[in-house]
Amino acid sequence: MRKFALEGRLRHTFDGMPEYKRFLDEMPGVPLQDMWNDIRPLLAHERLGYPTEKPVALLERILQASSNEGDVVLDPFCGCGTTVHAAQKLNRQWIGIDVTHLAIGLIEKRLRDAFPGVQFATHGVPQDIEGARDMANRGRTDKNYYFEFEKWALSLINAQPGNQSKKGADKGIDGNIWFGTKHEGRAIVSVKAGENVGVSMIRDLRGVIEREGAGIGVFLTLTEPTQPMVTEAAGAGLYALPGFEAVTVPRIQIVTIEQAMALRDRAVRFPARGDGGFKRAAKEEDRGAQRAFDL
To answer: What is the pLDDT of residue 163?
Structure first.
């Protein structure tokens, strides 16, 4: 006790009992446990809008504990892409698989937002307009496959499906895009994969946005529109968000699939730009949030 006292190793509790001082740099510590309560849940402003989304920090820890830089990470049910996001951030190679085009479209957007200049290949989705036509043709004999074409088309312009289950009538609403700084604006999307498009479809879309009180209608078509369709869309006039009347856009916008493939969400014009369907992933910066484990 005298030796510990001379070394400054003792401290006294409130009742006078001595305690031995321990210092962290002299202790080996304990292995990382499987009870991780130090990673906080996602906050509302961090969520992208996918139902099963998980914190990137959680997947970072899993990848740090189980792989090294340059290793290949496979997530066969990747959902909104948290695993591939973490793998990209930690300099791993990665493969992500999901059955829905909705998830694949969100992952593509997420990676481009978080890692400007990132390069990756997407397989199983149309890479050009001919691929889009082939996908649409297969959907004519398989209704479920058509709905996947619809979801893929919506993902091009960052729109959320209007009726994801498709158990009931969609009431002319295939997708929605919310825009404005507080998402106070709404655009209704109608997807058409057939070859026979006409002016009556533009009138129908106009009726839907008036019924729903939406600001904009987007006619997303695989087939080039006719001149009467263009004229009918122009006749719907312009739209502006309340308080921003100086910034107007066409109330009915016709966007071809080919345009959407080239321009993505920039193919649709909004009076006040905002992330509509799914939120934008924050641009990644190396802040050292998850330390290496030196495995």
So the answer is: 63
